[in-house]
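Priority: medium. Attachment 1 of 2:
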């Protein structure tokens, strides 16, 4: 097995693919590098002598500057490398000439067995969701979920309550964030029926929510204000039985893969994420968008340092301008809160070999493949067009995954080098960057992208991932679903009264 990899020919560092030791001589391409110290798996070492202030190149791009002299064969990490990024920037639209050639968007012959809803949207699950307008009724929602489980039928995939701490003591855009996410989930076609559960005295009461929800089918969406009923559990069960009866009328049918919407997310990344798991997801994204499907990339702070790659793939000047605003507005959010823009990467990322935000971002954005960027979505905005989109949301795993679901993602592909058990409101396929994680955490991880290091071609790996997505879209449960893990998190941006 290959011990180290130089990702691009212009890189001046290589990445250890396994634990390496001092005084080992490691082949890297046509060179042989004598290591001066131990190099953990996923970490970098210098391929030549680097003087202080030298740009370190990985993935073919700078990932920071050396803070002291680094000898050939030495470990390159936080002790001798720092970010080279600044604050908000000006950008120039310089579209890659080959981008539009990839803009195929024609439906192929792939399909999945999904649910066609009455408004012609498509779901991959036939579930009943209980959505609190406010955290005060979370326990009631959970009690209803437990009791409603007794009424499950073969035609209903799950009954799930989603708790959150918000919906009261919020103002302005902060409350609007809560309403946008709940509205997106209310309209999500993976839910055949929705029970919106309110308390009655909260800021985000049901009448306020209805202003955001807009048109809805009364047989699909039911509302319950708990303070208005002597026995809210009895009334809640009555409404849930009605929703179960309605949802039972749907059957799976053959649906083109071009109608799939897949969210792209990473978390607990390591130094191999940008070499295995993220490129595999990028290959999948290209396959799906070329067939007319839709993918959504989020985690805006983890685009910093790689944003020009995405900008040069924008399908129009308008999309480019929205991408610039997406990046600089999120940087301004850090500045206004007196926080460093480049606090990323996390301690776990660093332990796994990621040193700077550029290092993390250049690996992270590979999940988008090479397709044109067709649109930019605001937080909580539902995707309406086909192709690759960028979504405004932070890097936090639960917040970003919830945002992907609220924007319409049927499935989320979640790459990780460290592992995580959580589940989003929609099926979340966990993809490991290394085989060791897959073997240790088989109750968490659904797909092993670490096999790329054994010589499996990237195209084959992306095709395998596509086949898994189609199976999940047709009803195969992912590990987090089997474990009963469901989480919802909302982006908090304002004061609490």
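Attachment 2 of 2:
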């Amino acid at each position: 097995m290959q011990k180290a990899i130089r990702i691009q020919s212009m890189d001046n560092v290589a990445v250890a693919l396994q634990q390496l030791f001092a005084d080992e001589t490691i082949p890297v391409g046509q060179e042989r590098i004598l290591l001066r110290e131990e190099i953990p798996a996923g970490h970098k070492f210098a391929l030549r002598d680097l003087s202080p202030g030298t740009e370190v190149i990985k993935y073919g791009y700078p990932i920071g500057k050396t803070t002291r002299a680094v000898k050939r064969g030495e470990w390159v990490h936080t002790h001798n490398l720092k970010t080279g990024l600044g604050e908000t920037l000006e950008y120039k639209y310089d579209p890659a000439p080959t981008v539009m050639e990839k803009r195929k968007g024609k439906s192929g012959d792939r399909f999945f067995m999904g649910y066609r809803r009455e408004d012609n949207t498509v779901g991959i699950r036939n579930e009943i969701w209980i959505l609190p307008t406010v955290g005060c009724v979370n326990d009631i929602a959970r009690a209803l979920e437990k009791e409603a489980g007794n009424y499950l039928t073969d035609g209903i995939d799950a009954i799930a309550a989603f708790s959150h701490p918000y919906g009261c003591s919020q103002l302005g855009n902060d409350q609007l964030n809560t309403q946008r996410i709940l509205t997106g989930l209310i309209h999500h076609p993976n839910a055949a029926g929705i029970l919106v559960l309110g308390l009655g005295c909260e800021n985000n009461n049901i009448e306020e929510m209805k202003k955001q929800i807009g048109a809805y089918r009364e047989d699909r969406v039911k509302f319950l204000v708990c303070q208005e009923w002597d026995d809210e559990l009895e009334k809640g069960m009555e409404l849930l039985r009605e929703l179960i009866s309605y949802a039972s009328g749907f059957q799976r049918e053959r649906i083109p893969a071009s109608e799939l919407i897949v969210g792209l997310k990473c978390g607990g990344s390591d130094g191999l994420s940008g070499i295995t798991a993220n490129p595999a997801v990028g290959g999948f994204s290209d396959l799906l968008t070329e067939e007319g499907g839709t993918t959504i990339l989020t985690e805006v702070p983890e685009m910093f340092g790689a944003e020009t790659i995405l900008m040069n793939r924008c399908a129009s000047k308008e999309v480019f301008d929205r991408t610039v605003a997406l990046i600089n507005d999120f940087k301004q959010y850090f500045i206004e809160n007196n926080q460093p823009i480049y606090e990323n990467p996390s301690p776990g990322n660093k332990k796994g070999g990621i040193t700077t935000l550029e290092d993390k971002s250049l690996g992270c954005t590979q999940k988008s493949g090479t397709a044109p960027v067709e649109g930019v979505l605001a937080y909580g905005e539902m995707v309406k067009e086909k192709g690759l989109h960028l979504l405004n949301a932070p890097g936090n795993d639960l917040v970003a995954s919830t945002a992907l679901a609220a924007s319409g993602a049927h499935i989320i592909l979640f790459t990780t080098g460290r592992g995580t058990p959580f589940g989003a409101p929609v099926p979340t396929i966990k993809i490991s960057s290394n085989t060791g994680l897959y073997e240790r955490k088989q109750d968490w991880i659904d797909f092993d992208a670490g096999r790329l290091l054994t010589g499996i071609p990237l195209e084959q790996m992306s095709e395998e991932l596509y086949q898994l997505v189609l199976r999940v879209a047709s009803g195969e449960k992912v590990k987090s679903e089997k474990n009963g893990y469901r989480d919802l998190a909302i982006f908090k941006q304002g004061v609490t009264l």
